[in-house]
Amino acid sequence: MKKLIACIALATLAACGSEQQPEPAPTQAAAPEPEPGPSLPPPSQEVFAATYAAACPKAEKVVESMCKSAGMGHDGFICEYRLGSENAPRRTTKIVPNEVEWKLADPDTDCAA
Fold it and tell me: What is the pLDDT of residues 19-37, one digit of tens each?
């Protein structure tokens, strides 16, 4: 009986070691991610003021501004700003990147206000 148990145990061990291990599936080479182009830093108050002044030379000077991202999937920033003697930031515009600098998305409307 002991010999029978020993033979069964030996056969079980032999069977475990003789199983073929599945070969790992070939992995696909990941496509290289496109290199990002040059990007502009978020606009500061000074950058927004200069952008607005360049687009609207006859308008009053921007004295205060705050820009927030337009959101994921959208280019540019939404900026609230105040001109000259106004009391609170109440005007809103969108600025978008233009290769090397920021520009107003709709200067005709923004400068006419």
Answer: 566 676 666 666 555 444 4
